[in-house]
Amino acid sequence: MVCQEQEALVNKVLDLYHKISTLDTLKPSQDVDTLFTQLVRTCIPHTPFIDITKLSTTVQEARSDLIRLCAILSQHCQAVPTKIAFVGSGPLPLTSIVLATNHFPNTTFHNYDIDALANSMAKALVSSDHDLSKRMVFHTSDILDVSHGLNEFNVVFLAALVGMKNEEKKKVIDHLGKYMAPGAFLMVRSAYSARAFLYPVVNPSFDLKGFEVLSVFHPTDEVINSIVIAQKCPIISTSSKEVESVFSNNNLLINGNMIEELVTEEQL
Question: Lowest CB count within 10 Å: 68, 76, 98, 156, which one?
Fold first, then answer.
């Protein structure tokens, strides 16, 4: 039974590989979006286990070429953000640190927190790293009092504990939606099922007015926070399919290790 499942998975990957390899281009499109989404969803499950060292030469060659195609695809993904904001960064801004260190070495991170002591501790934490300290900016402000400059951020993170009650959380999201730039991404921490006893819940269907929800991730391990990825709707919405394609082309990021790094900070 296991061997049959393994064979079926390999055959499905090969079928997708042949379809992808015959595409005229890997630039964002409906075909590219659909095929790579299917590929990622096929390969993500841990079972059945595939030992790549035991694959045939033909499959190994297809695998190598598929990796090459994935690399080409990544070149067509959206440009790396130049400025990211984190609202509710706290005294231990691990998300900003991890992203700045491991993923976006040329991006500036603006960290907002209402607590001056928390910002002081966070600033001291990164002060010993010359490069990191230059790219980590700390603002002691209530985000509801901030309007100027929010439209400059490509991505805004909203911590789970900003807005403890639903109406408070929604008020913050509405404020961000008012001042963020059209097309900018909002990444909101939430909670699911019994984990809602520990952190506030964001309802993607009702709490994100003015945003298009692109992805919702509920961890199944010891990580508590879920994450909702949304995009502020353009003033003239004429490219919804393009938006979906761009974000789908980042499926390797959304479904991979990076998303796990983004949901752990407030549990430490």
Answer: 68
What is the distance between the alpha carbons of residues 151 and 153, in angstroms, rounded to a whole number? Answer: 6
Please state the φ and ψ torsions of residue 55, each to the nearest 5 degrees: -75, 155
Domains annotated for the chain, with CATH where assigned, are 2-75 (no CATH), 83-267 (3.40.50.150)
Q: Residue 114 burial by CB count (10 A; 0-12/13-18/19+): exposed, middle or buried? A: middle
CA distance 266 to 224: 9
pTM of the model: 0.66
CA dist 241 and 73 (Å) reads: 17
Rg of the chain over Cα atoms, rounded to whole angstroms, equals 20
Q: Is 36 exposed, middle or buried (0-12, 13-18, 19+ CB in 10 A)?
A: buried
pLDDT tens string for the chain (268 positions)?
Answer: 458 888 999 999 999 999 999 999 888 788 888 898 899 889 988 788 888 888 899 999 999 999 999 888 877 766 678 999 999 999 999 999 999 999 899 999 999 999 999 999 999 999 999 999 999 999 999 999 999 999 999 999 999 999 999 999 999 999 999 999 998 999 999 999 999 999 999 999 999 999 999 999 998 888 889 999 999 987 544 344 444 444 444 444 444 445 445 555 555 5
Q: Does residue 250 contact residue 78 with C-beta atoms inside 8 Å?
A: yes
Cα separation, 147 vs 228, in Å, equals 23
